[in-house]
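[Meeting: bench + compute handoff]

Bench side (C.D.) handed over the final construct sequence. Compute side (W.E.) agreed to return the predicted structure before the next meeting so the bench team could plan truncations. Sequence as handed over:
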Amino acid sequence: DAMDMEALKSRLLERAQTLGLVADTPEASIEAVLAHDVQVPEPTEEECRRAYAREPQRHGAQAIAEVDHILFAVTDATPIDLLRTRAELVLMRLHAEPAGFEAAAREYSNCPSGELGGNLGQLTREGCAAEFWQAIEQFGTDGLLPTLVHTRFGLHIVRVRRFIGGMTLPFEQVSQRVAQSLTQRAFLSALRAYAGDLSAETAG
């Protein structure tokens, strides 16, 4: 909470004094302390190759999709079975009459994009819910997805206007990017542990 953050900031500034790393601003002093105290080793080539082998597509050219959707939002008070039935009926109607998508989005969607006929623009894996993107990528082409897509936001009818598949690049072309990703991940992990230790000292 805010009090914990203030205590942590105070502890970091004290540490800056101890190390003789006081800078022009508190933020710069804290950055200097973190650069001094939180260091991670560079990943080895073997570690990079293992990370690449686990997710080769993550380090290639990203897939892009231009997408429309109709959202049937779920809330605590929503009768989910009734909502699903309604969404499935609309989906069936759109499979029979695809040209009615924009009008259906304006009528039924609980997303602001409904006013635009459901248009979400261009999306990538990082730009939407994981389940949403997985359904788009598995479909892998243009058109109306055959089933509803379930996410934490609710039930979606999804239409892909255009899908451009990603390209897996060889390790040699992305090795630096893989190394940077591993270094960043290791730094964040070390930073969390460091902040936890400082918080414990402050509380003690």
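W.E. noted at the follow-up: The mean pLDDT is 87. C.D. will use this when planning the next construct.
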